[in-house]
Design brief:
The structure is a homodimer of 337-residue chains. Chain A is an alpha/beta fold. Chain A folds into two domains: 138 residues, Rossmann fold; 185 residues, Dihydrodipicolinate Reductase, domain 2. Helix content of chain A is 29%, strand content 24%. Chain A contains eight helices and 14 strands. In chain A, the strands form three sheets. Chain A has a six-stranded parallel beta sheet with strand order 5-2-1-6-7-8, with helices on both faces. Chains A and B meet through strand 9, helix 4, strand 10, strand 11 and strand 13 of A and strand 9, helix 4, strand 10, strand 11 and strand 13 of B. Chains A, B: Keywords: Amino-acid biosynthesis, Diaminopimelate biosynthesis, Lysine biosynthesis, Methionine biosynthesis, NADP, Oxidoreductase, Threonine biosynthesis. Chains A, B: Its EC number is 1.2.1.11. Chains A, B: It catalyses: L-aspartate 4-semialdehyde + phosphate + NADP(+) = 4-phospho-L-aspartate + NADPH + H(+). Chains A, B: It comes from Persephonella hydrogeniphila.
């Protein structure tokens, strides 16, 4: 079996470090691992398979001989370095939003549209965290009864905004108990014991970019340009794990029992739906896990043909690192690398 | 001007104590104040207008001579004591869910259906906290363009579950930083850095009672039995202030500009809607305030005639104590007491 040379750009970040853990856990066939970051983070040491590696500053030469480059260093670095890495012969799996909506870049969730990796031209985009977990839950239902519209409200963890945002929640909460003032560095507002209805920047239609990602990326991943998605994305004082209240209207009726049966057998989904025994997914329980957890499935009361459900996943894993490594696995499986 | 004898049953609770503060702040014409609670809480002292009062155990005699009794001691105590208080000549304003859906009990939000107090038969019900803030925001829109359906997701503060739940969040968060284990006493699950999609008990249709309150009470308060309300109610690690992501479909089109104009002039509403300058309502900023704060108004992308918005209010104030005292003020204004 062939082993591959893997580079991680943004290795010191919250997602980058999780990528290392996921590559280890899933026994990805790694020959050489190369950890890359900006000048600021270069020199730090990170462990992979029990060996310490020094993080190198990103450069064109750093991609020499690399088979797969996992990028998670923000959109502007992706735009700068992805063409360079591709030029050097690597396939880039990019976690930023830089290329997601490009017509010649596949946007892939392996449980939903694995075949799309086959038409890549060097870059494959990893979708937005909130979108990934939602489409893993919705696609199996859509294949059975067409979904017309989706109304989703998110309860997103601070780790989605990176390592500094994790520190923000921790430090601001401690400061609260000490009667001190702390202003978050990474988040747009106070997060301790608060809810911030603002993730990523506001656009001209008064939706945030995060909310529009859920609209646009869902359609592209599910190959369903007719589905209407209305999202409200809010940050809550949670470290790991995004929760989503998802309401759908389908073209034909679907009962909660049918939906449970579909999701019980759906790839990457774990059904946790026994409300009478207080069984439903919650972020503190999904943290560290790779699947998408679905519960609270019930007939929606606003639509004749509607369902409501509660979808939770670890945003750093299935929402980012795990999905990216799964895409790399697809490249191996399809003999594309 | 006449002054009134007021009793508060459940005076030592989170809502009961807020009722005392709101009566003071709004200069309600109080002659005598009588603080009542269960045997367990009797004997405690609470201040009103600078004077300390001892909490008395509730008894039939305790309602002798009372004009208005504010109840916030849970449904079973309301069922036991409301008929007694009415028998003694008091008008009961009940914050529990015990009588809300009774056909001969008005369910009143003064900004929405003030006239309903006029047909009371001794008991007037104060609605569910999440419902109150939602109908204050939706009713002015409904009067302009009929609302067909509402999809709402809540982000509810622990104070909605009472004083012990406030302690739960505080103690569990502290324990987290000390590496200790703490299990909440009042909440059905861990709340520190978590989200719990479970408020009140689960019913046969797999909705919670809290979610069905939003369905049923909205229709009764707004006199709109045709509106369909689908709710997902979740508890978040916030002390004070419920947030709601509200999506509506209207019969005719309504633009965000029209909705802003309507809400700017709506009773009890404060519009905080300037996303480009990071202005939107958040729970830590509405805590201690009596109004309903609305922001993030935008054309909903899932419906042709739809709007989305973000609605936040202090659940102990407008969601409970303030609304109850406003009902008492209506009784005075209409000469019903």
């Amino acid at each position: 079996m062939k082993n591959y040379n893997i580079a991680i750009l943004g290795a010191t970040g919250a997602v980058g470090q999780t990528m290392l853990r996921v590559l280890e856990e899933r026994n990805f066939p790694v020959d050489e691992i190369r950890l890359l970051a900006s000048e600021r983070s270069a020199g730090k040491e990170l462990e992979f398979m029990g060996i310490k590696y020094k993080v190198q500053p990103v450069s064109p030469e750093a991609f020499e001989g690399i088979d797969i480059a996992l990028f998670s260093a923000g959109g502007s670095r992706s735009k700068e370095w992805a063409p360079v890495a591709v030029e050097k012969g690597a396939i880039v799996i990019d976690n930023s939003s830089a290329f997601r909506m490009d017509d010649d870049v596949p946007l892939v969730v392996p449980e939903v549209n694995p075949e799309d990796v086959k038409w890549h031209k060097g870059i494959i985009a990893n979708p937005n965290c909130s979108t990934i977990q939602m489409v893993v839950a919705l696609n199996p239902i859509h294949k059975s009864k067409k979904i017309k519209r989706v109304i989703v409200s998110t309860y997103q963890a601070v780790s989605g905004a990176g390592a500094t945002a994790i520190k923000d929640l921790e430090e601001e909460t401690k400061a609260f108990f000490e009667g001190k003032y702390y202003y978050p560095e990474a988040l747009p507002n106070h997060i301790a014991f608060n809810v911030i209805p603002h993730i990523d920047v506001f656009l001209d239609n008064d939706y945030t970019k995060e909310e529009m990602k859920m609209f646009n990326e869902t359609r592209k991943i599910m190959h369903a340009p007719e589905i209407k998605v209305s999202a409200t994305c809010a940050r809550v004082p949670v470290f790991y794990g995004h929760s989503e209240a998802v309401t759908i209207e389908t073209e034909e009726p679907i009962s909660p029992e049918e939906a449970r049966e579909i999701l019980k057998n759906a790839p990457g989904v774990i059904l946790e739906d026994d409300p009478q025994n207080n069984v439903y997914p919650m972020p503190i329980e999904v943290a560290g896990k790779d699947e998408v957890f679905v519960g609270r499935i019930r007939k929606d009361l606003a639509f004749d043909n509607g369902l409501s459900m509660w979808v939770v996943a670890d945003n750093l894993r299935k929402g980012a690192a795990t999905n990216a490594v799964q895409i790399a696995e697809l490249l191996v499986e399809y003999g594309l690398v």
